[in-house]
Design brief:
5 strands, mainly beta, about 10% helix, N-terminal domain of TfIIb
Amino acid sequence: MTPLGISEELLEILACPACKGPVVPSEADSALVCRRCRLAYEVRDGIPVMLVEEARPLEGEAGDDA
């Protein structure tokens, strides 16, 4: 289990719904983060909410705007 309560098996198959890229757990944000889209998907009670409409933008991280 990851610190967010998500199994490693589930984490391996999850992808960002916006760009289909990888998501990584961020304990500081209590979310799964897509660095490409700069979006954080909240994890509630160990269940990731993978809805673009509910994702929040990441702040303060450098990223490519291209």
